[in-house]
Amino acid sequence: MSAKVWLVGAGPGDPELLTLKAVRALQAAHVVLIDDLVNPAVLEHCASARVITVGKRGGCRSTPQEFIHRLMLRYARQGKCVVRLKGGDPCIFGRGGEEATWLRERGVEVELVNGITSGLAGATQCDIPLTLRGVSRGVTLVTAHTQDDSSLNWRALAEGGTTLVVYMGVAKLDEIREQLLNGGMAADMPVAMIENASLPQQRECRSSLAAMHEAATAFALKSPAILVIGQVAGAAQMASIAAAASA
Ligand code: SAH
């Protein structure tokens, strides 16, 4: 039997946002390696899988990436149906690309299964249309966190005029604000900060770019959260657009 691994997105948290394809992979799985941003409720679809948690949160040290790679390889070579379950989409800040390449280089077949990424889900759950005719012609997904010292071209993002969705930004709010203001973004640009998107404990905090750090502190915003920065995140702007459209 040829070795195969499914790299599956579990979506943002709400188990009903799982794809049918993800459910099918879980039903067939012998082994599931699960990340800690995945809602364990989705495991109800497993028939008899061995579940291994390879989380990086909760104060624990990260499971080394190399260890996760080797675990997948070992089970796949045993002919087991291996599902690597990741929060959101496996290829949006999820190392899906790295893991797929590593496995394929070792002769393992890989199938990627989309999940709904938290940035898109969070906005929609808060009634924020990330693109909107006449307001936002695009959306840019970025991470505020890097493992190397590389930095984003914040000026280009500020000038680009698309809605920005920032992942892993909670600890970097001050830096994000400074960079975008320096890049020329308006101080009153609306910002929505969405914690635990799509889960019952979802919370949202609205602010302006200039005030977002203080607003998040007062709100006690915690990870996981995404930031939506752009006109579409402004309730007032949205109301006036709706009024203009119906006039
Ligand atoms: N692959 C994942 C992202 C992993 S990076 C995806 O596609 O969603 C981890 C970051 O994702 C977190 O720091 C946070 O910014 C975001 N995130 C994941 N789940 C979230 C949720 N339920 N609500 C808000 N943000 C979330």
UniProtKB/TrEMBL annotation:
It is an enzyme of class 2 (transferase). It comes from the Bacteria. GO terms for biological process: methylation; siroheme biosynthetic process. Pathway: Cofactor biosynthesis; adenosylcobalamin biosynthesis; precorrin-2 from uroporphyrinogen III: step 1/1; Porphyrin-containing compound metabolism; siroheme biosynthesis; precorrin-2 from uroporphyrinogen III: step 1/1. PROSITE patterns: SUMT_1, SUMT_2. InterPro entries: 4pyrrol_Mease, 4pyrrol_Methylase_sf, 4pyrrole_Mease_sub1, 4pyrrole_Mease_sub2, CobA/CysG_C, Siro_Cobalamin_biosynth, Uropor_MeTrfase_CS. Keywords: Methyltransferase, Porphyrin biosynthesis, S-adenosyl-L-methionine, Transferase. GO terms for molecular function: uroporphyrin-III C-methyltransferase activity. Its EC number is 2.1.1.107. Residues 4-210 form the Tetrapyrrole methylase domain. NCBIfam families: cobA_cysG_Cterm (TIGR01469), PRK06136.1 (NF004790). Belongs to the precorrin methyltransferase family. This is uroporphyrinogen-III C-methyltransferase. It comes from Pseudomonas lactis.
